[in-house]
UniProtKB/TrEMBL annotation:
GO molecular-function term, one example from the UniProt record: L-cystine transmembrane transporter activity
Protein name in UniProt: Amino acid ABC transporter, permease
InterPro entries: AA_ABC_transptr_permease_3TM, ArtM/GltK/GlnP/TcyL/YhdX-like, MetI-like, MetI-like_sf
Organism, as annotated: Ligilactobacillus agilis DSM 20509
Pfam families: BPD_transp_1
Residue ranges of domain ABC transmembrane type-1 in the record: 17-214
NCBIfam families from the UniProt entry: HEQRo_perm_3TM
SUPFAM superfamilies per the UniProt record, alphabetical: MetI-like
Location within or outside the cell: Cell membrane
Recorded superkingdom: Bacteria
Membrane-related topology note: Multi-pass membrane protein
């Protein structure tokens, strides 16, 4: 058993460094940017043509929150090649597995995180807007300098939980042939006929990574809590 672990562990760790962690970090970064844009657009009450844009982003959030992530991966990777648009994509939209994974995870993360950020922005007292207006701040300046920094502090715990969840969800990328940790564990299990051992080993690696991220989350929360407390005292 130990010889199998000793032989398999480097391969699993290499897959984590090459695919699992980059996939999670890139997807979460892009998803967070998309979430911020989505939350701001959905909160703006501008009338006219802007309502169409707000409706589009509302539909996007509804769609990705209402469908399973695995189905979304299959649609993007296996389904889009059959979407043939004359003049644009005559042969369908064919994406590299890693790119398809990043696109799907980013869109999924953006939909969920946008609700977190939207709720955090709404949680900032309305008096902050009034105080900023009294100081001559524009709405854009108020949002950038006052509201968003406070909202990000509020949203750190749920966003950190989302990132930890995303790291675990990257195991679904094996379904579209991305050679991340779970895919490698499946390949090794097919060779040594030890599925229980291999899947337990990859589960342990995920547990270690997520435990480290949970510790970092606690440190980040403590830092922002102390900063906020120190500013108030």
């Amino acid at each position: 058993m130990w010889s199998i672990i000793e032989k398999s562990l480097p391969q699993l760790l290499l897959a984590a460094v090459q695919y699992t962690i980059p996939l999670a970090v890139i997807s979460f970064t892009l998803g967070l940017l998309l979430a911020l844009i989505t939350a701001i657009i959905r909160l703006k009450q501008t009338r006219g043509a802007f309502k169409i844009l707000r409706a589009f982003f509302s539909f996007y959030v509804w769609l990705f929150r209402s469908t399973p992530l695995l189905v979304q991966l299959f649609i993007v990777y296996f389904g889009l090649p059959y979407l043939k648009i004359k003049g644009l994509f005559p042969d369908g939209i064919k994406l590299d597995p890693f790119l398809a994974g990043v696109l799907t995870f980013s869109l999924n993360t953006g939909a969920y995180a946008s609700e977190t950020i939207r709720a955090a922005i709404l949680a900032v007292p309305t008096g902050q807007w009034e105080a900023a207006a009294a100081l001559g701040f524009t709405n854009k300046q108020t949002l950038q300098r006052i509201i968003i920094p406070q909202a990000l502090k509020i949203s750190i715990p749920p966003l950190a939980n989302s990132f930890i969840g995303l790291v675990k969800d990257t195991s679904l990328a094996a379904s579209i042939t991305i050679i991340e940790m779970f895919e490698v564990s499946q390949q090794i299990a097919a060779e040594n006929y030890q599925p229980l051992l291999m899947y337990s080993l990859v589960a342990l690696i995920y547990a270690v990574i997520c435990s480290g991220l949970s510790w970092l989350q606690g440190q980040l929360e403590a830092k922002f809590h102390l900063t906020t407390t120190g500013g108030e005292s």
